[in-house]
Amino acid sequence: MDIYCSRCGEPWDIDTVLRESPEEFERMQSLITRCPACPEDPKQISEKAKKRRAFLHVLSDVMGDDIDDFASECENLENSGILDD
Ligand SMILES: [Zn+2]
């Protein structure tokens, strides 16, 4: 299952984030706050990624450090179409 970087929106497999290369990510509980795909220039972050970030912060507050539930809610968010409006 994937979780999304709250900064740039890149999807990452939980195993990569937790076990394979955790040193490459900055996190606050379940939330990825910086990943290897994040652009240096914040202007390169898409509107969709900015919208996603707002939702991810709320989800993270609710889920705390339960990363599996967080990933499941990330998937629901991506499939809901709400980010595409
Ligand atoms: Zn990122």
The major beta sheet can be summarized as:
2 strands, antiparallel
Compressed to H and E, one letter per element, the order equals EEHEEHH
Strand tally, please?
4
Distance between the termini: 24 Å
- Count of structural domains: 1
The side-by-side strand order for the widest beta sheet comes to: 1-2
**Class computed from helices, strands and strand pairing:** alpha+beta
Fraction of residues in β-strands = 15-25%
Bound small-molecule species = zinc ion
Computed Rg: 12 Å
Please give the share of residues in helix. 40-55%
Shape: globular
Regarding quaternary structure, what we see is: single chain
Task: Please count the helical segments.
Answer: 3
Set out the fold topology.
Layout: E1 2-4, E2 11-13, H1 14-20, E3 26-28, E4 31-34, H2 47-63, H3 67-80
Antiparallel strand pairs: 1-2, 3-4
Helix pairs in contact: 2-3
Zinc ion (ZN) binds at residues 5, 7-8, 10, 35, 37-38.
Explain this structure.
- This protein is an alpha+beta fold and 85 residues long.
- The chain has one domain.
- Helices cover 45% and strands 15% of the residues.
- It is built from three helices and four strands; from the N terminus they run ββαββαα.
- It has helices at residues 14-20, 47-63, 67-80; strands at residues 2-4, 11-13, 26-28, 31-34.
- The strands form two sheets. A two-stranded antiparallel ribbon has the order 1-2. A two-stranded antiparallel ribbon has the order 3-4.
- Helix 2 packs antiparallel against helix 3.
- The longest helix is centred in the middle third of the chain and has 17 residues, at 47-63.
- The radius of gyration is 12 Å and the shape is globular.
- The model has no long low-confidence stretch (mean pLDDT 93).
- Bound molecules: zinc ion (ZN).
- Zinc ion binds next to loops.
